[in-house]
Amino acid sequence: MAPTSKVSSEKIVAKSLVDVVTERLEDAIVAGDLVPGERILEQVLANEMGISRGPLREAIRRLEGRRLLERKPNIGVRVAELSPERLNELLTVREALEGMACRIAATKMTDAEIQDLEKLLNAHARDVSSSSGYYQQSGDFDFHFRIAQSTGNEFLISMVTGDLYDLLRVYRYKSSTMGGRAEEALNEHKKIVAALAAHDPDAAEAAMREHISNARIHAKRAFEEAAAADKADAS
Q1: CA 181, CA 110: separation in Å to the nearest integer?
Q2: Which residue ranges make up each domain of the chain?
Q3: Which of 13, 19, 16, 26 has its CA nearest to residue 136?
Q4: Cα 232 from Cα 219, distance rounded (Å)
Q5: In terms of Cα–Cα distance, which of 119, 86, 109, 93 is closest to 209?
Q6: Domain 84-234: CATH class, spelled out
Q7: DSSP element (H, E) containing 72
Q8: CATH number attached to the domain at 17-79
Q9: pLDDT band for position 131 (50/70/90)?
Q10: pLDDT tens, position by position, 191-230
Q11: How much is the pLDDT for 177?
Q12: d(C-alpha 3, C-alpha 162), whole Å
């Protein structure tokens, strides 16, 4: 009988310095430590991280490509931002796109894929219980990303997970930090999974549309509260 290894068989993924810096900047942007519109001061950040400006500049270029940072003439690099109007428009479009993704997913997701989605939500539930926000990492750790990928429709996947996907996560997180929203969002995700598990396209699309609609309402409220707070500070 072969001896049992005491070392985890999980694959080790080597990360470059640029990868690490990119992740730290992304986390800071999504969590609001670097706020929308804030200027990125390369030398200051490099000093704080204890690195040279080379890896930082490459990380910045990556995040520019993902629309989390933007470079403006005579200003430099800033954290990207969406106006309340643009965010509302974006979420209105995503309601239709993600509703369609859910409809297709209800007919195509396997039981194993749905079980994996349930496991993901269990992990999210632990995150919600330990913090005030609902922070989903990108890619396979993102509930919405998983559903879009399961459709197998390349055009739909590109539209849902491509343009402005990462920037939208910033505002999704901001909305989730409002009192009670994190738990509400998690329960809405569970309702979506229940519809997917029942392989009910109508219910799946309706649940996702309701979820995105609620996200739009809470995002609008987050903007209004932030504006009121800024006004109070200025007075």
Answers
A1: 30
A2: 17-79, 84-234
A3: 26
A4: 20
A5: 93
A6: mainly alpha
A7: strand 69-72
A8: 1.10.10.10
A9: low
A10: 999 999 999 999 999 999 999 999 888 878 877 777 777 7
A11: 64
A12: 46
